[in-house]
Task: structure prediction
Amino acid sequence: MSGESAPPPRPVRTKSQRELTPARMFVYRLAVYLGAFILEVLWRTSRLKIVGLDRLETLLKEQGAVVPVFWHQHLLLAARFMCSNKIKGMKPGFMISPSVDGQAPTMLAQLYGAHVVRGSGSYTGVRAVRGVYNAIVKEGISPTITPDGPRGPRFKMKAGAIFTAQISGKAVVPIAYAASPAKLLRTWDKFVIPFPFAKLRIAIGEPYFPQKRMTEEEMEAAQLELERRLHETYKMAAQALRES
Result:
């Protein structure tokens, strides 16, 4: 033995080149457990009804997996819904930004037993594409994507979810929720946080089956169509909330 101590482990770098230092990871762990506690309070006290659940379960039975999408403002409880036992046949997964900002969401998703692929909401890198393909086709995982995340613009559909559906042959499924009472944050996405014991209505929208090959114009049209379907899905949830 030389008596020399081993060099300390090098901090992990993400795509953004910011370092995941031990101090940063410690803060993230605290934030994740606190976030999970708050999330469980909101989820377990909510008065939940689901609109169109049979549509999603039928698709899962037929296809084995789907590509769920919801706007970034609905991330909180829509993601919790994906990881719940409310959906027969669902194996939840998430595509999360490879930046440092995506580390805490990744840890939270893994805490709930979800599969995580680090990629972006636009066309992803080769490694992310391979990870998404293997997760869907080989493992039957449904990788949820927030198509206007992680930084917007709000309600603008990026191509990643459509591309994911193309390479896997699965349907894109719009999901939205409405809640009352709820707080709308002053963030770029107008993030929605329901109050404890809020009425919560989650809606499953009309699935979209993209063509295997698209021109640039066809891709833009598909993005606009999915934006429309996501907005219509929210209207379904809001209508169910008004009728309750």
User: Anything to note?
Assistant: The chain has one domain: 16-243. Strands lie at 12-13, 19-20, 47-51, 67-69, 92-96, 115-118, 142-144, 172-184, 192-204. Residues 216-243 form the longest helix (28 residues). The helical segments are 22-45, 53-63, 75-82, 103-111, 126-138, 160-168, 216-243.
